[in-house]
Every structure is written in C-alpha cells, then in structure tokens.
Amino acid sequence: MAEAKGTVHFNRFIDVSEEPGKLLQPIEGYQSLELVSLEEAIEPIVKFCPDVRRRAYIAKGNCDPPKDGLTQDESASIFLYTMEWAPRDQCLYVVLNSILRSKNRNRLITPWLLFMKLLLTALFNLRSCGMTVWRGVRLDLRKEYVVGKTYTWWGFSSCTESLHVLESESFLGQEEKRTMFSIECFNGKKIRPHSSLEEEDEILLLPGSQFIVKSHLQPSKKDPDLIIIHLQQVVPPFVLLEEPSISKKDNLPDLDKQTKVKLTITSTEPKPQHLKSDSKLSTKPIPTPVDEEKKYQIKSGKEAKSDIQV
C-alpha cells in the first residue's frame, strides 16, 4: 500500500487494505488474566517494541488525572496505542495490528495478552456510541467489498467523524484512486480524551468488528477516482472478540488488605429473607450488543441514505 502524504501518524486511518479479508480464529486468551499496571503489561513486548518503556512513561505522565472514569493505567494504555515513533515497524500499534490480522495470531499473540487485557478493559469501560464514521485507503476496493456480503476487520480500526479530515492531503487527498468507507457503527469508542493526537478526534472500532456492504457510490463525475463504500456494522453470530473479565480483586478499590477482605465477604453474603422477589430493586436487563444495534438502527434508519452524500 502507498504511504500517506504528510506525517506518518495518519497511517492507521488508511490501512484498510491490510485486513486479511477472511475469517480468522476468535481473539481471546486474556480474559481471565490479572489486570496489571502499564509497566507490567508492556514488559513481555519490549523485544518487539524496544522503545516502549520510554513511550509508556510519557503516556502515563499525560494521563494524570485520567478521564472518563478510567484508571491512569487504562487511560495510558490507549494513549500509548495512539503514539507513533520511528522505526515505524517497531511502533506498538503497528506490531499489534499486524499480529491481530495474522492467520498465525494464536502463535504470536501470547506476549501481548497482558497489554490486550489492559487496553480492552479501558475500551470496554468507555461508552459505546452509534454514529457514522469514516476511514479510507488510496486504492479502489470495490472488487474486494461486494455489495451484500459481510466482512470482518481484525485490527483496531481508526476512524474519524469528519469527512473533511479524511479528504485532507494528510489522509487521502483529492487526487488519484481512493476509497472512502462510510460506516454506520453502534460501538464506536471516542478516545480523544486519552489520545496522543487529540486534534484528530479519533473513533476506534474494536477488533473483530463485522460489517455488511450496503452500497457503492461514485459521488461525482468530476472526480471518477473517488469511490464511497457504505458499510453497516452487524453483530456476528458468534463472539469474535472476548470481553475482558474483571476479577473481584481487580474491581476492589485500592484499600488496605483487611478492608478488601470485608468487602469480598460482604459481596458473597446470601440475600436476606425479607428481600422478596417483588421488591423495588431494579431488574432492568443489561443491554447487549444486539440491543445496541437495534436501538441505533431505529434511531438512524431514516438517515442512512443521507449519511454518504458528499
């Protein structure tokens, strides 16, 4: 794939062509691991990203105090993911996404599991947003994305809400062959408060996100090299990205040992007899990804046709 013009940090917004275009094994292995500090999480990956300790120090220093209710380590894991440094092939997000997209992922991912646990915990703790986002590539990908078919993106997918940002020379520009993806998503993660590049207003889609191709559009006869592919996020029939489980130890606040023991004991006490089944305790079900998708479709269905007009 051709390198983007301008600064190198924009590459992850236009790396769609690096997706394998096939179903791979589910992303898993980190769920039951202990949630550790950023410093501990990166130790196993130093041999792949030799400068990662120094970058993690910078990331953590920029996440004090953390935002959105995350811990400093969780926020810093997102900040570190968005950082770019030379050489590019030793940059954390480049190596990680390359592994996530590899058919040999299960053999390669073991050193990354602690960092994946921390990063995914941070992202799952951020509110999921339904919106139309954009990303692209300097290629014509109509043949690779057939209308009516479903495709899975295995890497973390960097997107933007602004079509004008994507059209800038730093991204796709306005010349030569290029494909823009207009994506109706239901679980976009707004990472701007935790990003090293706040000005880009980045929306991150999680690995294992699945999309159906709704249409191809050539919006302007004056610019025949521009293609827009409209994607709609769908819920896979099976889980492709395991949610990081949080142990009781991870959930407890940073209290002394005796207090933690008391809290743990209290949380496992049987329900008192006087709490009847018809009490006023909330029984509101926790929303599932399917619920989120339905809610977003109801809300934005009438707008779907206008989302991709430029």
UniProtKB/TrEMBL annotation:
The keyword Zinc is assigned to this record: no
Pfam family, one: ART
Segments for region (Disordered): 264-310
InterPro entries in the cross-refs: ADP-ribosyltransferase_ARG, ART
Cellular compartments annotated: Secreted
Top enzyme category: transferase
Signal peptide: none
Basic and acidic residues: bias regions: 271-281, 291-310
Record's keyword terms, sorted: Glycosyltransferase, NAD, NADP, Nucleotidyltransferase, Secreted, Toxin, Transferase, Virulence
Known EC number: 2.4.2.31
Reactions the enzyme catalyzes: L-arginyl-[protein] + NAD(+) = N(omega)-(ADP-D-ribosyl)-L-arginyl-[protein] + nicotinamide + H(+)
GO molecular function: NAD+ poly-ADP-ribosyltransferase activity; NAD+-protein-arginine ADP-ribosyltransferase activity; nucleotidyltransferase activity; toxin activity
Domain of life: Eukaryota
GO CC, alphabetical: extracellular region
Family membership noted in the UniProt record: Belongs to the Arg-specific ADP-ribosyltransferase family.
Protein name as catalogued: NAD(P)(+)--arginine ADP-ribosyltransferase
